[in-house]
Design brief:
Distance between the termini of chain B: 62 Å
Oligomer: heterodimer
Strand content of chain A: 5-15%
Low-confidence stretches of chain A: none
Helix content of chain B: 40-55%
Radius of gyration of chain A: 21 Å
Number of helices of chain B: 14
Strand content of chain B: 5-15%
Order of helices and strands of chain B: HHHHHHHEEEEEEHEEHHHHHH
Strand order of the largest sheet of chain A: 1-4-5-8
Largest interface: A-B, 66 and 65 residues
Structural class of chain B: alpha+beta
Shape of chain B: globular
Order of helices and strands of chain A: HHHHHHHEEEEEEEEHHHHHH
Strand order of the largest sheet of chain B: 1-3-4-6
Number of strands of chain B: 8
Number of strands of chain A: 8
Mean pLDDT of chain B: 90
Largest sheet of chain B: 4 strands, mixed
Helix content of chain A: 40-55%
Structural class of chain A: alpha+beta
Shape of chain A: globular
Chain lengths: 373, 363
């Protein structure tokens, strides 16, 4: 094994760090909690202009296995709000793999420029973990499609330019086989967005689709092949494109608090901090493995689940330690523990719950027999 | 702008999480060797001492002891195994040893050879090192300094090693050669641990820091624990797939599935960290990563064997079952170095600087 970063990657890391230093201020980071929109628009644009987004997308980028991990990791350890970047990288990866000519020429470059954003329209009020049970309908018409339905947890919809929309196109086949994904401009008539505010301070949305007319160019992947598109999306969302290193900024804040308060001398606090440092190292390695597989042309379906499961549960445990060790000061909004205690449980739910990831590992990696249903 | 996807694979940088060809070859050799020669019956036969002489002799036959020598030491060992090995190759071999619970002190022997190195200040040591390379004599290291009465306590493989390298409270290194007692106080993992008297020892100068010697034991022991964990999970999955209750395999129940699904990530994380510690140590100071790998693998092995044993129900804890053998070694092999909690305090010292207040005494 070789854990060295290639020289070109070290240069890339320095470039990202410079861009973060130039375009992200303490106010940018504080703003996310006030607005609920986890974005750093100036940095996103700067990364796009520098070619950094294009560089990491599997299939079109540098091909250096570690670049993809590096970009996500640098943003996370600097605590930069960049949920929009993670989402657009998922969509860009799907387009690069299976997008049509229109999507590759008109939409992909716009995403890579950092000027435009996307959101993910999979979940519905009654279809979360069982996402193949969605009921949003797409019906063929002359020269296109009409869509009706509603989606939940469409984070970034209020500032996104496109949504990838999972729809039901065939009612007569098994639920996984009758799905089609669309890539839909958010300014299409018939789409409305309503805010949903969360404990983790992030704003997400409910989105509604009423008689939305689309052309055939909006189909993403094959008609009735939506589940295959989901497989790509989920493999990249889980454990590859960020969300697995929040323990790094948490430990930095934990350490600062411990130094200032004198708790640094408490063996219990020291053990907690050492355990968090070790879990951060393990989360990094598991994420690097998933990213390495993805960048090498594979689909890290179960490896990403392992990374996400481990990292988010470790993060939740770390947040609990910080909140408990620093109590009662930790209860104040001004204390870093408050945000981590609000945000960490969210990470074990979105992008595939811990339970869904355990199912995935049990069935696809351990090959245990399927549960009777 | 859009390149063919296949071309990406060829462009992957030098960052590489696959085993090298040399590591794969050693992994295959040692897995096959231990699977053939260290069956679970050999493991049982070795209890309570935890050492199988014929297995050690066979290991000497394939040149395994020499692999731990530093590369510049000459050797006449027959070489199915290479004469000396890379750190990464020792890691995969130690992992294979753990998978089979092989009752031989190969890790301790390798670490002692590493400590002694290739500088032979006196003729006695040169002769001794030749015997260690052949495996004619077994060596080990003492993990903790001499106590007030001049003894090393709980020396791993101390019951079967003729040669012990260890240090005193002032950081001096002592070499003891003598007769292995071939007896151990009955213990949890049936490990050949023993207290050893250092009063006849010879002072020696090492050309590596003692912390690097301990780090190497941490890494290779971590690798063996990864092997224990990996094999225990395989056994649990096998059992959960074939054992039927309520008319279905118990592995189809989500309660069982989820208990096991937590484990591959723990094992894989510890495995990667063990390799990273070895890789970094080859070119610089990897002591902190070595400690991390040891802690991660110790906890992974403890959790995995606990859950694997539980899945086996009564057959997990019955002595006729195999899981209890894995469960006890997952605890006995690392805890000879002292409490895990002390390991975390030391890791905190590494990362955050020493605590200005005296550490809580746990050991």
């Amino acid at each position: 094994m070789n854990f060295d970063l290639p020289e070109s990657t070290v240069a890339f890391r320095d470039e990202i760090r410079t861009l973060i230093a130039e375009h992200v201020t303490a106010a940018t980071i504080a703003d996310q909690h006030r607005t609920g929109t986890f974005t750093a628009p100036e940095l996103l644009r700067a990364l796009g202009t520098a070619g950094a987004i294009a560089r990491v997308i599997p299939g079109i980028g540098s091909g250096d296995a570690i670049d993809l991990w590096l970009l996500c990791n640098e943003l996370e350890i600097a605590a930069v709000p960049a949920d929009d970047l993670g989402i657009l990288m998922i969509v860009a990866t799907i387009i690069a793999k299976i997008g049509n000519e229109h999507q590759r020429t008109a939409i992909l470059p716009a995403l890579l420029s950092g000027e435009r954003r996307t959101c993910l329209g999979y979940s519905e009020a009654d279809a979360g973990s069982d996402v193949a049970a969605i009921t949003t309908r797409a019906v063929r018409t002359d020269g296109g499609w009409i869509i009706n339905g509603a989606k939940m947890w469409t984070t970034m919809a209020h500032i996104a330019d496109w949504v990838i929309l999972l729809t039901r196109t065939d009612l007569d086949v098994a639920k996984h086989q009758g799905l089609t994904m669309f890539l839909v401009p958010m300014n299409t008539p018939g789409i409305t967005v309503q805010p949903v505010h969360t404990m983790g301070t992030e704003r997400t949305n409910a989105t509604y689709y009423d008689d939305v007319h689309l052309g055939d160019e909006c189909v993403l992947g094959e008609v009735n092949g939506g589940w295959a598109v989901m497989a790509i999306a989920l493999a990249f969302e889980r454990g590859v494109l960020g969300g697995t290193n929040p323990g790094v900024p948490l430990l930095r804040e934990f350490h600062e608090w411990a130094e200032q308060s004198g708790a640094i001398n408490d063996p219990r606090v020291r053990e907690h901090m050492a355990r968090i440092a070790l879990d951060n190292e393990l989360a990094t390695l598991l994420t690097q493995r998933a990213a390495w597989i993805a960048a090498s042309g594979g689909l890290p379906g179960t490896e990403g689940s392992m990374a996400k499961l481990f990292a988010t549960e470790a993060y939740q445990k770390a947040a609990q330690w910080l909140q408990d060790d620093a109590a009662p000061h930790s209860l104040l909004h001004a204390h870093p523990a408050d945000y981590h205690a609000r945000h960490s449980p969210v990470t074990t739910i979105y992008g595939g719950t811990s339970e869904i990831n355990r199912n995935n590992i049990a069935l696809r990696h351990l090959k245990l027999p399927r549960a009777p249903r | 702008m859009v390149r063919a996807y296949a071309s990406v694979v060829q462009n992957v940088g030098k960052f590489d999480l696959a085993l090298s060809e040399g590591e794969l070859a050693v992994e295959q050799l040692f897995r096959q060797f231990f699977e053939a020669e260290s069956s679970i019956d050999v493991v049982r036969r070795s209890e309570p001492l935890g050492y199988d002489g014929p297995l050690w002799t066979q290991l000497c036959g394939i040149g395994a002891p020499a692999m731990g020598a530093r590369s510049s030491i000459g050797t006449s060992a027959p070489s199915q195994a290479s004469e000396s090995a890379t750190y990464g190759q020792l890691v995969v071999a130690a992992q294979a040893l753990g998978r089979s619970l092989a009752p031989v002190p190969l890790i301790e022997h390798w670490v002692a050879l590493f400590a002694l190195g290739d500088r032979a200040p006196v003729a006695l040591i040169a002769e001794l090192i030749a015997e260690l390379i052949d495996g004619a004599r077994i060596a080990t290291i003492a993990l903790t300094p001499l106590d007030a009465s001049g003894w090393w306590r709980f020396v791993p493989a101390g019951a079967v090693a003729d040669v012990i390298v260890g240090h005193d409270a002032n950081g001096g290194t002592l070499l003891v050669t003598g007769q292995a007692p071939h007896a151990t106080a009955p213990n949890h993992a049936c490990s050949p641990i023993a207290d050893r008297d250092a009063s006849d020892g010879t002072w020696v100068e090492l050309d590596v820091a003692w912390s690097a010697v301990i780090a190497r034991w941490n890494v290779l022991t971590a690798a063996s624990l990864v092997g224990i964990a990996e094999r225990s999970l395989e056994l649990a999955v096998e059992y959960a797939t074939t054992r039927h209750q309520f008319g279905v395999p118990i592995g189809s129940f989500q309660a069982v599935q989820h208990s096991l699904a937590d484990l591959p990530g723990r094992i894989e994380g510890a495995r990667l960290l063990t390799h990273k510690a070895a890789s970094v140590s080859e070119r610089g100071n990897g002591n902190q990563l070595a400690r991390m790998a040891f802690l991660a693998a110790s906890e992974a092995a403890a959790i995995v064997t606990d859950r694997a044993l539980h899945v086996h129900g009564g057959y997990g804890y019955a002595e006729e079952g195999d899981l209890q053998l894995f469960y006890r070694r997952a605890r006995g092999w690392p805890l000879v170095a002292g409490p895990i909690a002390v390991g975390y305090q030391t890791l905190a010292d590494d990362i955050f600087g020493p605590s200005p207040q005296p550490r809580m005494v746990l050991a």
